[in-house]
Write a structure and sequence with these properties.
Helix content is about 75%, strand content about 0%. Helix 1 packs across helix 2. The protein starts with a helix and ends with a helix.
């Protein structure tokens, strides 16, 4: 069984991974939209670049995961 410190560390790592995968998916979508804009002769600079996950988001997801884990 993990210590509370190890559990929090694992949850933070998992939260970071979840957000990283989500970010990478949004980046792939961004690249597709940019290519479509270029192909259509539209202004590709108007396609919004996704924001990278920040510490606040990581902590929020980790907290949500923790709340799920502690439920019986």
């Amino acid at each position: 069984m993990s210590s509370p410190y190890e559990m929090r560390s694992q949850l933070l790592h998992q939260a970071q991974n979840i957000l990283q995968v989500r970010y990478e998916s949004r980046m792939q979508q961004y690249h597709v939209l940019v290519q479509q804009a270029i192909k259509n002769g539209d202004d590709a600079s108007k396609v919004k670049l996704p924001e990278t996950p920040n510490q606040e988001e990581i902590l929020k997801v980790a907290s949500d995961l923790y709340e799920f884990v502690k439920k019986k």
